[in-house]
Design a protein that fits this description.
Number of strands: 15
InterPro entries: AL/BT2_dom
Keywords: Signal
Order of helices and strands: HEEEEEEEEEEEEEHEE
Pfam families: 3keto-disac_hyd (PF06439)
Protein name: DUF1080 domain-containing protein
Length: about 200
């Protein structure tokens, strides 16, 4: 009996370990596994994923070619030349029209870490303005996003920015995507994009 319990515990531990294995979404070499939406520039340089405004200065997105439902995503970003961007969850695309939810990446005072619904309800939640000091403009920042059912939580450099429970988000399905905002003159770098599935 004791041996059976031990075997069962070992199997459970193996399953939990497997469920928590990290998936590298960006390989540091090319854009394999990603889909470009729009005419803005996405390229790899020195192991970093870079987005830049194109000549038209319109919205642009780079999405995963797979859908992810429940997960914990960590990535690093460095804002240069404005830095208005974002990380989309459970999102789908028609050209450059996105349906989904954005965890904001923006210059100081512009609600980095907040959650915005594009072509829908707009801002769902913004961080306390006092938390904006967690953002290091022009330096590498670490963002963590946990999405589980209707719950979304964001952290910036270890500081919890927002927590939201939303039924509509809970029903959503789609890709993870990086955004470049319209307006032109934007440049943001990304690296170490890792995902741990929770389902």
């Amino acid at each position: 009996m004791r041996k059976q319990i031990l075997v069962a515990l070992c199997l459970l531990a193996a399953q939990l370990t497997f469920a928590q294995e990290s998936i590298t979404l960006f390989n540091g070499k090319n854009l394999d596994g990603w889909v470009n939406h729009g005419e803005e520039k996405w390229f790899v340089e020195d192991g970093e994923l870079i987005c830049e405004s194109g000549p038209k200065g319109e919205y642009g997105y780079l999405s995963t070619d797979k859908f992810y439902k429940d997960f914990e995503l960590t990535l690093e970003f460095k804002q240069e030349a404005d830095g208005n961007s974002g990380v989309f969850i459970r999102s789908t695309f028609e050209g450059t029209k996105v349906s989904g939810w954005q965890v904001e990446v923006a210059p100081p005072g512009k609600d980095t870490g907040g959650i915005y619904e594009s072509y829908g309800r707009g801002w769902l939640i913004k961080p306390d303005p006092e938390k904006d000091k967690a953002l290091k403009m022009g330096e590498w920042n670490t963002m963590k996003i946990r999405v589980e059912g209707p719950k979304v939580t964001s952290w910036l450099n270890g500081v919890q920015m927002v927590h939201l429970e939303d039924e509509k988000i809970g029903e959503g399905e789609g890709a993870i995507a990086l955004q470049i905002h319209d307006g032109g003159g934007i440049r943001v770098k990304w690296r170490n994009i890792e995902l741990v599935p929770l389902d």
